[in-house]
Amino acid sequence: MFSSATFSDRRAALADALDDGLVVLLGNEESAMGYASNLYPFRQDASFRYYTGLNAPGLAVALDTATGETTLYGREASLEDRVWNGDVDSPETLAALAGIEHVAGPEALADATAAARASGRPVHVLPPYRDRQRLRLADLLGVAPGAVEPSPTLIDAVIAQRLVKTDAEVGEIERAVEIAAEMHLTAMWMAQPGATEYEVAAALEASAYSHGSYPSFPSIVSTRGEVAHHTASGHVLAEGDLLLHDAGCVAPETGYSSDITRVSPVGGAFSDRQLGVYQTVLDAQLAAIEASAPGVAYRDVHDVASRHVADGLVGLGLLRGDPADIVDAGAHALFFTHGLGHAMGLDVHDMEGLGEDRVGYADEATRSDQFGTKYLRFGRALRPGYVMTVEPGVYFNAALLEQWRAENRHADFVDYDEAERWVGFGGVRLEDDVLITDDGHRVLGPEIPKEPADVEAAVQSGAEV
What we know:
Radius of gyration: 24 Å
Shape: globular
Number of helices: 16
Distance between the termini: 38 Å
Largest sheet: 5 strands, mixed
Strand content: 5-15%
């Protein structure tokens, strides 16, 4: 956890960015899995954690933008809490860790918001993404749940702060990447004939837990790489399969996330066909990373990757024509079905709960309506301190191919007969976390095998154990 001064300074900057009013930030509550005492692993609201550093359930803060004073609302642990959960920090102890001056019980937050509303002061809140948050905000604001209105000025102020990472935050993301590097090396070692996807996923996630970490999102470990979010199954790996592993974790004490993707040839050798696709994606990723710099629109970086994908697929006989024309028409999206990447931080898709367009586009860029590119989560200009994923891919999705062929879509550019011969191939995606610096970029964390020969060597080393 950072120093209490870090969180005090963040709240002071937030207060300075807003007109007079009361900012209310709700921490998350525990969530029941199947019944009240069977709980999902707790995950704190990222904005609440950003401004307090506190990772305990049932908390809230109110920040008076006029005075800069903050109050932490929480309850003392009951005897029952101590019996079942052990000793927990008191609200006073938590407040001291966060540099918060005042402490009150949960019920006092309603009095504070009522007083602000009665005096005509605005109460600034962020968009709720859990029903319990929405219901509590509705009670605090005296409106129906569907009438809760988030504060645009608060949203924009939070985005402006959280997008730009300090050196300390970057260090925490790098710590998460270091652990993720071990996770992906584990997956490479495990990519052997006879293992199941479940076994690989379990070993990959165990390496995170062994460091006091946990996955930053549900791990994607699958030979069905053409399905973007396909999770592990009981499929038994066979020689020649391509195993895609997209996984990250959180820094143990602060919660900052990593998000990395690699692809392993089961048994340790890419076929010529696999190597052609893999090299196409690698060339696209390296070109996109090289293009990432301050002042460059991330939409333009996406287009750099797209043109390299199109060029590689022309070489493989799947597309025909000029790569720039192919990308302008959107024909490449039959194979590159998503956007290049997203912002990273306390959320693995940083701040998407505040509104994907607001975070990734604002008034600087316009989201495309073209298939594939419309899924680009971030299009605005890059700035020093931004941390972005760069993750192009090539996929052979039978359902999409069938629909496009039936519609005769982009028939001038797509060789559908050839594309159908690739159904069952799976998919290839390569992803790293990249910091935008004052004069360019830096790939965060240690090198994780990515060149084809290095990946093959990593998989082969697992077979020797």
